[in-house]
Write a structure and sequence with these properties.
Length: 251
């Protein structure tokens, strides 16, 4: 296990750039606006929208408020919501974003990375994710880790975990032990999901074993946050396993 202790120092210019804007914000045409929902403790789920099949489709991400600033798990899918998210975070918590971790290379997890880097905010992903970002010409993080890593920011520690290939070959999850939250990203399918969704970069053969590995590593989370659709039911890992069984039965 790799450990990273982060001491966050924002320059005067970075602080100025992160000050909330006073004007209103709009989404891309036809996209619903950003929503932020309190999850538990200092954890918040935020949802933005992109297009899937020509229709707006929700993407869940998360942020954690620590004593040393706010940590983002993934970024808005709709990049027009980057600044509104920052404004909302500052308005709610009087804290600034100090770190972001992206959980795989797809645009619903990386679209805002260039914006964060412009603000001087440290961005992280796995080395494999950055390799795939370069291959697929998506935004990449400035920093990488090569193994499961525990970050400490302020009063919170959180762990990245690679269960194996699934939705993509680089997908990771993030575990926040103090509040027993498992941020599953797109590796985990919501209870609302009728199927496995986008399989363009998936490995449905490896995915079932990876789900079992994840459930063994974190057997009893209080909350499980999938990458899309409803996130209030923690049985979504079991639902993911069920969908994979159904997929195997017909392929």
């Amino acid at each position: 296990m790799k450990y990273i202790l982060l001491v966050i120092l924002l320059t005067a210019n970075a602080v100025a750039r992160l000050t909330p804007a006073s004007s209103g914000h709009t989404t891309r045409q036809g996209h619903p606006p950003l929503t932020i929902t309190h999850l538990t403790g200092d954890c918040y789920v935020y949802t933005t929208y992109g297009l899937a099949g020509g229709e707006p489709y929700p993407a869940n991400s998360m942020y954690l408020v620590t004593g040393k600033g706010v940590v983002m798990f993934d970024v808005p899918w709709d990049s027009t919501q980057d600044q509104p998210l920052f404004d909302s975070i500052y308005s709610r918590h009087h804290q600034r974003v100090v770190l972001c971790i992206s959980t795989h290379f797809h645009e619903d997890r990386t679209a805002g990375l260039s914006y964060l880097r412009q603000q001087g905010i440290p961005t992280w992903s796995s080395a494999l994710t950055r390799e795939l970002c370069r291959l697929h010409h998506t935004n990449e993080a400035a920093n990488v880790f090569t193994k499961d890593t525990t970050f400490t920011v302020g009063n919170y520690s959180f762990q990245t975990f690679y269960p194996g290939a699934g939705h993509t070959k680089d997908n990771i999850v993030i575990w926040v032990p103090e509040v027993r939250v498992l941020y599953g990203g797109c590796f985990v399918k919501s209870m609302e999901a009728p199927d496995l969704g986008n399989l363009a970069d998936a490995d449905p053969v490896a995915w079932p074993a990876a789900v079992q590995r994840l459930m063994k590593e974190f057997p009893d989370p209080d909350f499980v946050i999938p990458g899309h659709l409803a996130w209030t039911d923690k049985r979504s890992l079991l639902h993911t396993a069920k969908l994979l069984e159904e997929y195997k039965a017909v392929h």
